[in-house]
């Protein structure tokens, strides 16, 4: 591999040492290093067979119910949770760290699993199934739990805390413990946070025996929708859809300046439509795009940042959106098509923002695109692999038809199995093809079920947090605290703003959004996007609602800022995974990735003040939409130029300052401020035109 930095003419001096694409084993190791959710331990043969069978049965259970009918609500959720808890303590070790060999079978570790793991496994399964088992008589005991009810609920809560710690680390269990402590010690809380307090029995009753806690909407969505789409994503990737996306992106975008970086953006956008994991997306596409970016002359940290910023965009890209789309339809009680439509423009704006910055960086450095010989032929790629896109077309078509998401997932999975069978039969013949298909289904179902374990225990534990909020009414108190604080700031700042450009009410909303954004990012640094979203809609979304923000808009706001945590130091896991591929400084890569993701940071403020950007909100009009969209695009472009120091030519310090100020005015959805921003940009544009003509002459 060449390690030359090539300019427009293809020449250049030696720059960065060559970086070779990662092997499949290296990709897996890197993903495990930065993503605790896939850090599965090796198992002894008997436990491996038993756990693999249980995972396959769990996947078959969900595949069957998606096609032929979901069970009674509590029963369905209980079965899913029982399987998950039994499996978590089999596949995740006590330390949470990767292991090279399965443990030896001893008296204290039967079949290589410590007795503590067996105890948690049995306790989790029994306590999770207890509520469905006694469901018919439960209505007579809610509010007056029996000692057995309290004991079973206590066991389940303890088991969930430990299961989530193993799968995801300490942050979410600590948050859940703090919320339970708040509920229990309510009388000792200071000021407005004081409340009568709840006994342990009444707390367990609310969290365990009602639909407001562990068995609530969060777990229901995972067991009803999310599992199926995780399984679909695994099978779709297995038949080659992910590789098709990468090859098509290379063919379409690779020829332009800084080609591999644009391939990274486009391929991550496409792959993100079926993958909900920022880290998995980063490792999968980054193993190819990052070495190519470094090869043509991008700095290592910048190459890593491009891939990380692009890959986190997968969580906001329809139709899967990192599973949050399905949570939204339950909490907002709107059709999935409404959520997917609302997500289109903000997702586009994120990738537009990254694309503009990589283009300007390429122009500033004089980087070339890939040559024709280095690129695949788009038509040949599609002709050879068109069959792999059929399952996605089937999935989207059924979603748009108005049928249930799990029905769409069922047919998408079925189509994936069909494509898998055709591929095996064509390449191996009848007997070997049937055998190969059976093996692929077995492996795909097991892997899909494995990937669902961590998100299930997280959702169940988030049910504890949500349950405390509904039990204590702390959400209303937080709303009062935040809005009163923001209102005080607004009254202090309003007299300082000239021409009354912003009213105190607008300033109050702005300060509230800023505080909410910071909290979302901080929460997202320790817990995954899905859990962060669930907690923030219970706490932060009501704050925005109190200020008149439409529920759909409030949910999208907290969701976007939760996703941003994946590229926000000090816990920017997607950026750190990309830095591992690039051999770059991880913190520097994280800072750059955050800068590249500014579209994701700016656009939520735009659609709060101009909800028309989401297309389906109340009061939508095309003039308002066009004004908001054009302002956001111009603002992102201006800020990109200010950061990179290049527009059509290198920028001077005063020009970068003007563009930065103009960018902030552009994103304000108001015609006057947009025109003022354009006037501020005018001197920079004029100098650029004059400079371009002089260079051409």
Automatic annotation (TrEMBL):
One of its GO terms (cellular component) is plasma membrane. The chain crosses the membrane at residues 47-66, 78-95, 115-135, 167-185, 214-236, 339-360, 381-402, 408-426, 455-482, 502-522, 534-561, 567-587, 599-616, 622-646, 658-686. GO terms for molecular function: transmembrane transporter activity. The keyword Membrane applies. The keyword Cell inner membrane applies. It is found in: Cell inner membrane. Residues 156-617 form the TRAP C4-dicarboxylate transport system permease DctM subunit domain. Residues 1-20 are annotated as: Disordered. Its main location: membrane. Keywords: Cell inner membrane, Cell membrane, Membrane, Transmembrane, Transmembrane helix, Transport. It comes from the Bacteria. Signal peptide: none annotated. It is a multi-pass membrane protein. Part of the tripartite ATP-independent periplasmic (TRAP) transport system. This is Neu5Ac permease. It comes from Jannaschia rubra.
